[in-house]
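Dear support,

We are seeing what looks like truncated structure output for some complexes. This example has two components. We would appreciate it if you could run it in full and send us the complete token output so we can diff it against ours.
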Amino acid sequence: MTPKISLLTAAWLVLKKDWQIEWRTRARLTALIFFSGATLLLFSFAMGPDVTSLRAHAHGYLWLGLLFASVLSLGESFRIESENQALTGLVLTPVEPRAIFIGKVLGNASMLFALSLVLLPITIGLYDVDLTRVPHLLLLVLFLGTLGISAPGTVYSAISANARARDVMLPLLLFPVLVPLLLAAASATKLTFQPDPQDQLGSWLKLLIAFDLIYLSVGFLVFPKIAEED
Amino acid sequence: MPASIPLLLLLALAVMVVVHVVVPKTRPILWKVSAALGLVMLGLLMYLGMFYAPPEAFMSNVGRILYVHVPYIWMAFIAFLMNVGCAFAYLMKKSWVTDALAESSAEVGVLFGAVGVAMGSIWARPTWGVWWDWDPRLISTTVMLLSYVGYLALRSFTEDPERRATWSAAVGILSGVSLPITYYSVRWWNSLHQVQSSTASVDKTMGSVLLWGLVTLLCFLFPFIVKRYEIARARQTAAMELPPLEAPRPEAA
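Here is the complete output from our reference environment:
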């Protein structure tokens, strides 16, 4: 009989598997970079060439670009599992389905975080923002924000991967839930781009952490039931 | 204890729904009694809200919409809380009954919530000067309604009944997270919308009229939920061969 492996080891294996699949083609990340780069460019066309106004709203464009890209990325993360019924194979292995959840969330979050790092120089180029004020806090905001998109996003993409009209279903389910996260992440990012005279960054970071913890734990609880149905 | 009123209303609804589901004899009567009582109470509510209650201190007669706006939103909350409860119950132990109840409570909750938001908008125009404002309470309520619209869309897009039940239970729980955010939004952020109106936060006469309005709408919420539940059960029965809700009546000799 195969020895049972621990939750974290199994999660690490799922994560490594996703990274390996991605690394072999690098197709998803490349597509995401071009898609969100184009989105950022379109925002600057739609809003006109006024640099002051673009700079003032850069945080919002950055997060909208990430949010739109996340729908593509999350949808893809379970589409690859539905080919050849790979997810059924994963569920049948003697590991907890929760390990698949943790691995997938970390896989999606790392993909989006990598994307956000690529988008930063683009925001400098297009919107002329100053990233050097508190770079470590900016990275923290990006990390917490992308993790927050991935936690409910992984649950919803597991559901919508097998539903009819899945391309419509994922944003329909995901976007309402992400509104508090978008608000917190965009506001926190703004305060890293611009001065923070009222010292509000801390409270937005707390909201981000709370959002992540809530959706990670709810996802952790409900994911095994969803994986059973797949 | 005024703070316990929402819980008492939820409890009353839960008891009535359980009686309706468990005791087949009450099914044809209970909802009719509730709806009839609701109609009588609604007639009286019109009188109480329009003439008996004093005009609001700042908003004068415009504030009288409070007696229907607040109850509608409360009923939406109660319905969504019931949806979360049914979702948990379904994931603990699979049952077509809790699945059908979850479906009906979400749909009725969206209906009551939408009416409540529309009334709030009608009230906002003379009071705030706008139909809509980007205010935390309004945004979070809309987000709450939208996430349940997504829930209903998922239900209608999934054909396999067992998958639909499990997936929507998971989505119901994730949507349920928006309930406390909406409830506390007026306290957490500086909102244009006033803090929660309850029977304790207003004048005694107004409080009793508000309570009257809450009980009136609860009398309507119950028949809406159980009738929608019966439709959901009938659809389940049609989709799979389940035992019917009522035992077939013996043929007259």
